[in-house]
Amino acid sequence: MFWEITRYGGAHACVNPALTQDHNKLDSDLIAHLIVNLVIDAPHTLVKSIRTMMNNEFGYNISYKEGMASKTQGHSISIWKLGKLIRNAPTMDGCHATLHARDCRFEHVTPIVQVDDTFLYGKYKGALLMATSQDGNRKCFPLAFALVEGILSSVEDANILWQPPYAHHVFCTRHLASNLHSEYKKKWLKKLFINMSYEPRRHAVDSLLSELRLMFSDGAEWIDNIPKEKWSLAYVGGMRYSHMTTNFAKSMNVVFKGVRALPITGLVKATYYRLNAYFTEHSRKYAAQLQAGRLYSETVHDRLNKAPGTDLD
């Protein structure tokens, strides 16, 4: 048998169309630069959306792994842009946009700090720790953020000076009451503990505890294992400023909804921009009140108006 070399004039049937669905130049570095503005505006953008965007733009299908890598690199680039923005804009609504707490002014903030954590999910584990105070209008005033393994390990660290005489650490009544109920499954015990926590008189707290020891010694022992100054309003010496729960720290979770699954760089960037929007909104509101001739915060103004013989409007 002889072989003859000739020219074929028909259509080629040996080409796999799947080979054209990707491009060696369309790597994660290039995609990251293409989507950086997207992740700045919408840090929670799904990898699926990035893959669809690349297909619509260039006609190539990128893998999920490549899309995830591109998103992570895009967040890193956006963080670099964020750092450049901070260096070029040294002030933000009266508070220096640096990492030094001494640059911010806290004269009108309640001398109390509520610390709460919200767990991260997705690729990164741990918790986002948030320290929050309250301004003169009883609004949340975020102070600091940190990524930690857990809230107790951070608070108990002697290096951060969270112990007397520098600070006095107390517990949230709602969390303690929930733990107590989980241990013994008694609603009346949970309610009694909450009532004892809010009781302002020491002798009344001691009396209720004595009665509880006779009624249910296990529950009383559980409470006795926690120092009274950690949970009782009567024994804390006024340092709680009537704040028995971490409610206003919890309310900050609404501000950070949707960022807990982001890469760390994206979480930092989202925190910065959302805080910027939060402070800007309140700054404009308070500036309008000052221009209207208000001498006091909205909360104080309303309370004075309710006093007999007082009308500030």
- Tell me the number of helical segments per DSSP (H or I, 4 or more residues long): 13
Radius of gyration: 29 Å
Order of helices and strands: HHHEEEEEHHHHHHHHHH
Low-pLDDT windows of residues: 79-104
Globular, elongated, flat, extended or rod-shaped: what is the shape? elongated
| Arrangement of strands in the largest sheet | 3-4-5
> End-to-end span in angstroms?
110 Å
Give a quick account of the main beta sheet: strands, pairing sense, barrel closure: 3 strands, antiparallel
Percent helix among the residues?
A: 40-55%
Average pLDDT over all residues: 75
What's the total count of β strands?
5
Structural class by sheet pairing and helices: mainly alpha
Q: How much beta, percentage-wise?
A: 5-15%
What number of structural domains do the residues give?
Answer: 3
Structure description:
The protein has 313 residues and is mainly alpha-helical. It folds into three domains: 20-88; 95-169 and 244-288, no CATH class; 173-231, no CATH class. Helix content is 48%, strand content 9%. It contains 13 helices and five strands. It has helices spanning 28-41, 47-58, 64-88, 151-155, 173-184, 187-198, 202-215, 217-224, 228-231, 247-250, 252-255, 264-291, 298-306; strands spanning 91-92, 95-96, 114-119, 127-134, 140-148. The strands form two sheets. It has a three-stranded antiparallel beta sheet with strand order 3-4-5. A two-stranded antiparallel ribbon has the order 1-2. A hairpin with a 5-residue loop joins strand 4 (127-134) and strand 5. Helix 2 packs across helix 3. The chain is elongated and about 115 Å long. The N and C termini lie far apart (110 Å). The relative contact order is 0.10. The model is unreliable at 79-104 (pLDDT under 50). It comes from Senna tora. This is Transposase.
